[in-house]
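Practice set, problem 2.
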Amino acid sequence: MEKTSNEIIEKENIARGHNLRGKPIPNWDLQALKGAGAIKSSISNMLKYLESNINADESKTVISTQVHDPIFSGDKKHVGITWFTSEDKDGYKIINHKGATGGYVSNIKFTKDRKFGVVVLSNSTLAVTPVANLVFDLLKIKKFQ
């Protein structure tokens, strides 16, 4: 994934982050906590990452299925290594992760059983989970009518 790093690769291609009022804000510099929000990526690379996670059970991917396995379970949600799993109202096993830093939010959500998912990236601090949920549900309707 040539457009993904914990450093800014091509500064001119980074979308400027914005706060809730729509004002531009500086990028966060997470030198000490790079694993907690320092990743910069393109939508095309995130779609490759999504595909690798969906196909993690197959030998052609470098992602281990263990990252999806729950290590803590609650009533309806389970937590794995960076991934949260749950079951939706239609019985789909959903795997997802949300993220946010100053001026940016993201959501990646998929089902390995049905082989589809969605990635939503935003350069605003407005929540994107409702958008991810809507697109996921629309894909589910379209794909399995």
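Problem 2, part (b): a different protein.
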Amino acid sequence: MADTPHVPPSSFGIVYPEGYLVAVIDDPTHAEQAAAALRAEGIADDAIKLVSGPDAVTYADNLRNRARPGQKMLQQLFMDELSFQQEYDAQVQQGHSLLNVRVENVEHAHQIVALLVPYQAHGVKYYGRWIVTDMEGVS
């Protein structure tokens, strides 16, 4: 793997990951299995971004550092996004995996959440156009 993981331009952490479901999975093996299950259900490879271990820390750092000063100011104005990013940062520091899945809408997000239940996903949020929906416990 390259020194810097590829970062899709619309993925988690660049101010607001509209159209993405973001989940934390503690066990990297479960995270890999969850990504495989999503692919088996027809989710395209380019719609799934899984980062684990040191790559997850590097990924989160790269996303944070890529934000321009204006974007960082907007994140601070919208404290929910900042607190979510801090939550995800803390999770990757503990060695947990982040699974980002591009979804079509909130109904599609519900379908994805149901697929993630067996893999003990938590901290699950759907980033819609104007609102972040906490998907914790939703299936």
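Answer key, part (b): The chain has one domain: 20-134. The two ends are 34 Å apart (CA to CA).
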